[in-house]
Amino acid sequence: MILQLHIKNIALIEECTLSFGDKLTVLSGETGAGKSIIIDSLGFVLGARADKGLIRHGASQAQVEAVFDVSDSVGVKQKMVELGLEEEDTLILSRTMSENKSEVRLNGKIASLSMLKELGSRLVDILGQHENQSLLSVSTHIDLLDKYGEKEIFALKTEIATLYDRYREIEKKLSDYGDEQARARKIDLLKYQIDEIAQAELKEGEEESLLADRERFRNSEKILNAVGASASCLEGDEAYSAPSAVSMAMNSLKQAISYDPAIESLYNRLDSAYVELKDILDELTGYIDSFDFDDAKADFVEKRVDLIRSMKRKYGATVEEILSRYDVFQKEYETLLDADAEIEQLQKNRNEIYSDLIMKSDRLTETRKHAAKELKSEIERELSELGMKGSIFEVSIGSAEEYLSETGCDRVEFLISPNPGEPVRSLSKIISGGEMSRFMLALKVITSRLDGIQTLVFDEVDAGISGKIGEVVAEKL
Length: 477
Known about the structure:
Helices cover 60% and strands 14% of the residues. The chain is of the alpha+beta class.
């Protein structure tokens, strides 16, 4: 139950504190007096969307704080513990908003907006014109009926939702397999791709080696000319070559070593040079003799490089990626070959789950019909007390397997005849603003007993009503 609401720098309100008792509190005043600002402030501190336009002109931030007595609210206390708060009899919600940021505190501790919303929805129920309009949407009626049906309906809906998720999951798997013809086409494509990659006999690092060979073959004439010229320079003629020149230099130095030992190091260096030159000359000659080039081999390398590039365009940026794709294709191919058995099992599971879904949905339909009878009785009694004596309320429940969803197989719509003798029709077609306010009040009176919500807020609940009916509504409040 709300005890206090403190508002600071919200729209026209600079600062005010409202204290509430455990009975009815009425906020009245002329248009523009600030009643809606108070309702908006309460919604804000309960987690509604923050509108920075509400910050009072000239203020840097706005703040709203609400104090609640939750000593009798078991559900709220359980949620407090779930959210990591200490279980206390008093709960203080605080929310601050500025141009750049906002802050939420629960009993003084920093919290998230989602935490605020979870608690706020259990503390206060605000009923305004928006909620009246939402009641005209048929899609909301099934939730309202289920809310009235409480635990038995909730348990069945939970079972159905779980089964429906499994059903949809199996349907997706079957859809992924596609029809038989599409699967056959996929198998043929995978077989072609697997064979093409296998026949290419790709090897990691092969492309780099082939590119090096191709470069060598394309420039073979230049290479042989350069190597031959280098060998010729070292060979010279029969009488005089680079190695023989070094040998002659060594012989000359050898005669002087006995006179100056320092010359021996130079002699040794020439000896090393002589050995190195002989080795280089032998390798140059051997390179020329062993140079392996023929048109057939060059053609093979060119075709091999072209093949690899073609495969890369189809299957991946690198040979490694192509080989990885090959493994993926193999697994998918094997899976599809085994698909018939898998599909048969999936279809069996789907049919079993579907049968279970329909059975539980039928039970849910019967449970809803039972709840609908009780809701009809309570709504008509409340409407009678609100000056709509003789009104008839019906809950239309249409069931069909084609409606199957996570909520069962039902379509629910509220119908009403506000005046004796008239047939029941859709709320949106015959109910007036004043009648809608009273109908929503009747519904809220009933459901509030189930919610455990101890604070109800009615915004403009007197819209469209006056005189004696206004007194009746006031008594009900």
